[in-house]
């Protein structure tokens, strides 16, 4: 089974695109969901978070205090590196296990927000698909999320790979600046190409 890595900046519409592929019958493995599962107890990752950052970064329920940690890592790049070292190897291993468990099919979609930035994830995919949009669209979508103000949203965008670099690394690109129906047409066209590509290889 071939694997397409789906990536893009925060607020670009990766989840929407993944859902559209899923509607077409494509198996989807989402590393954000894996990360969320690792952020709730019981999880050895949380034990490492408490040891490295302190128990104050865990909520009363023992889960990762995502809002507090988000503020910390965007104020302190070294903290982000330490957090990534805790989570990324575990996320990568879980993604590999999930991909290996899928029944045979032409291809699967692996959603990885930091496909080009994080170590080891590009080796899991056969080609990359970037969801792209304008920064204005990005900001508008991010600000609809709870707990994120404009200043934090702009810091998050700046911390990620610049769009031009991401696009230069992409095998395929979906532009998500229009309507949902326009995006759906692009996804369907991509799916048709991927079926042919997967079956030809």
UniProtKB/TrEMBL annotation:
It is found in: Cytoplasm. Keywords: ATP-binding, Coenzyme A biosynthesis, Cytoplasm, Kinase, Nucleotide-binding, Transferase. Its EC number is 2.7.1.24. GO terms for molecular function: kinase activity. Its main location: cytoplasm. InterPro entries: Depp_CoAkinase, P-loop_NTPase. It is an enzyme of class 2 (transferase). Belongs to the CoaE family. Catalyzes the phosphorylation of the 3'-hydroxyl group of dephosphocoenzyme A to form coenzyme A. This is Dephospho-CoA kinase. It comes from Chitiniphilus shinanonensis. The gene is coaE.
């Amino acid at each position: 089974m071939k694997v397409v890595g789906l990536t893009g900046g925060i607020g670009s519409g990766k989840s929407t695109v993944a859902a559209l592929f899923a509607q077409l019958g494509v198996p989807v493995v989402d590393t954000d969901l894996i990360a969320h599962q690792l952020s709730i107890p019981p999880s050895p990752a949380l034990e490492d978070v408490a040891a490295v950052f302190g128990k104050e970064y865990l909520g009363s329920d023992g889960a990762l205090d995502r809002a507090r940690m988000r503020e910390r890592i965007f104020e302190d790049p070294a903290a982000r590196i330490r957090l990534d070292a805790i989570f990324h190897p575990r996320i990568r291993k879980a993604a590999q296990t999930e991909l290996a468990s899928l029944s045979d099919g032409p291809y699967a979609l692996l959603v990885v927000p930091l496909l080009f930035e994080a170590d080891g994830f590009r080796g899991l995919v056969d080609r990359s698909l970037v969801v792209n949009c304008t920064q204005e669209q990005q900001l508008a979508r991010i600000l609809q999320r709870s707990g994120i103000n404009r200043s934090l949203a702009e810091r998050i965008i700046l911390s990620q790979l610049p769009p031009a670099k991401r696009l230069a690394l992409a095998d395929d690109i979906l532009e998500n600046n229009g309507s949902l129906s326009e995006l759906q047409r692009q996804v369907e066209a991509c799916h048709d190409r991927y079926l042919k590509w997967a079956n030809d290889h």
